[in-house]
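Example record used in the benchmark description.
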Amino acid sequence: MGPTMEKFVSTLQEWLTADDIIQNIEGCLGCGNCSQACAWYLGTGDERLRPNFRSDFIRKIYRRYLSPEGKVLGKLGIYSTPTTLDLKREMDVFWKCTACGRCSLACPRGINNRRLTRIGRAAYTDSGFSKDNLTVRNIIENTASSNHSFGHSVMEVFAKVGLMLRYEDVEIPIDVYGAEYLFVCPAAGNTKIPELGIKIPKILNAAGISYTMTSGIVDTGTDVDHIAVNMELTRRLLVKMEEEAQRLGVQKIFVAECGCDVRTFYVEATEILGRPFRFPIVHIDTVIYEAIMNGQLPVEPIDQSVTFHDPCYVTRLSGLGEQYRDFMNLLVKDFREMTPNREYNYCCNAGSGGLAVAENADIYRKISVIKAEQIKNTGAELVTSPCAICYVSLKNITEYYGIATDGERKAMMFFEIIYEAVKKALLDKGEYHRVKTPLLHKDRDELFLERHSLNGFLRKLQESPEYSELLQRLAVNPNVINYAGENPGFDEYLQLQIGESGVSQATGQAAS
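Model output (structure tokens):
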């Protein structure tokens, strides 16, 4: 066995547990029922996209190189010997899967194909094969160099959302010591939907929740965990999160509306770290729901009919499905279930690399007809989901399959449904101003606010020689353009900011 195969095998050996070997390696009956639950197989009929195809490949490698009989019989030629050429040939199928776990529901033995797929990805990454996949390579390189899977800096992330929030005169607490919750937005959120994500601090502010953001982290690491499955980099980011929570003296850490975040912090973190995560993890929607139920946050149900897409990692793999049904009934007058729903709901086909990997684009479109039919059959005006990547996929699906007309947005993040219900209630009470000021900024002096506010943080960023150029790039950023389309005065405001930053830097250069 050469060094590349040896590394691949050693990763399998490291992460396959005794339960995996008994249940997931040796327990398969070969019945193929798993395929009847998989959208990737049902939508294509491609034999290589059967869930058990990937699992069988891992089984072959395990039985030849790790099982006692394989080590002997393989040398005698009785067991076939997988080679590095076999690894290269089969690698693509490990990313033509969202590791959603639906296949396990159809298996009479409960085989966990998603776990074998995850371990297979880890082995491809550790052995160096996955660098041939541009998406995986970029995630690893960006995370290694900038601690952000899209390669964005702290300045870029905060400037983008900061411009939008400051335009609306909404503040957020930054690096405040002693808050109850630390909130870190995952890279998918602050890259793909920041113009929507600014509604989250408005909700937290209105609810009077004690939270802080940190200037030290702008990614939770779930792309490198679930798409690349680079355990070393994931471990580094998890430890960084613990260190930031310790530095800021928070009690708990929020998990945002991101299915992969939910799975990482509720489940995978313990295995990756080899110990429990050091801070309690609380889903942000759980805290908001409690604030509504105890009267801190008013809501008035919205009028549109809404259906709910269950993120696989939130409902099927983490058990939060019923919580969202209770929540939906507080927020909407007409809630319509998909069929099937809850843990049996079909995947959005985008998470864990399904949509991110460019070569999957055609297959993704084809197999998403299943989800399109689910949405269409409800007759609902809107579809919502508490996951950024699910939202991106649902928006794509509703547009591609004609459920949304030109210029119409049928998909919404779940926190947007919350925000609309909160906004409606606050406007009725004449209390919309509550969205602007966070709890931890109340009754604070100017020095505190300068050090721990968004405005103060942006003023520090303006001192950087890179800031003016960054603003000019943001002016043509798709998220900023989307926001400007919804807020007609924002373009003028942004141009004013660009002009002021140029004058400020010219003055600084002259002074030096």
